Model the fold of this input.
Amino acid sequence: MTKKLPKILGIDVSKASVSCCLLESRPENPREFYYTYPFDKFNADSVGVKALLALTPDIAILEPTGTNYSKIWISHLDRAGVEVKLVGHRELKNYRSYQLNLPDKDDDADALALACYGFDYATDKLRFVRRRHPTIQRVRELILRLNHLNRVQSPIINRARQDLAWQFPEIANTRSIRSPNKDTPLMWGWLAGIRKSNHYDRKYANSCGLGITGTVRWHAQRICSIEQEQHAIEIELSELLIQPIFKPYQRVFDDFGFGLRLRCTILSQIFPLGDFLTADGQPEIKRLRGRVSGKPTKRHLSLRRFQKALGVAPSQESSGDSQKIKIVGGSAICRRSLWQWVFTRVEVRKSRMTNKIGVLLGEYLDTQKREGRPVQLVRSRTTARAVKLLFPRLVNELNCDGRLE
Done:
């Protein structure tokens, strides 16, 4: 008896619509099929969503188009009980061009390629992008929102400081941050008229400035609004991190002195850690013959994937006599956050952790500096060293805790 094949729906997501290709079997000649198949196009509205679900696919395959454009379609497919799989952009591009020989990239060609990809690699999980745990997906969304708010806030603060330089110069360069129990910084709250301060009242009474205008107060209100949103997001992140599944991760992060945002940023990239390990929960290590030395060499594959996810895996580029090593791929946000952590918690002696990790990283950074290496290179190497220390500690902690699933 022939096993019934699943109905696979390839979905190419655009800003406000999707192109769809529903297949019950893989076409023998995809190029000819492309010119004759009546591709569906649905708009991102209630009518479009109902029409897509009316196709009743068993499996839907999409590219992970950010966290916005594809989210509405994935959510409705999940609710309808349709299995959703994701294919990486590079993998789909190569598959469409070299294996299917489809014409130049367009939405319909992508939809057909996605559907065919599902038939060719249905049983190979490594061919698909892993879908994040729902809690981690929410953590990731919140981290991206915080980074967006930081980018929005910086030019507003800079513009307000420029105006304060002639309106109230005594506070133009004051660094005002939120205290743990407040959702707005004191100075900006005072300028916005939502917080009182005798200190700033006295300073303003004796200021040599030309007087605060409505423009600065509006800027301060915008800054306070952004700070309030960030505060609300941080509260939600703190509540998410107290879940039992994160406890072993939290214990390791405590040893490294990671702050809330960095913890969440790292977790959004590496949870669950078991995805980087073998079936028995151990790092994957292979002995391969070195290309240059010809001798057996250990390749720490799990560690390499872990470094890649956090954006600190070096890649070598060689051409003739030129050889370069640079950091490419991975999470740019995570790489930047780890660099900032090195700058604030490792490089600054008075802020340095006093435990073994702090001592090891601090001595390594100080030695690199004494040898005269560029400070940017020193920080980058220290970041990579920290990630190499982090990985085995997470593996040991989670193996002991039994939470590698």
In short: The two ends are 36 Å apart (CA to CA).
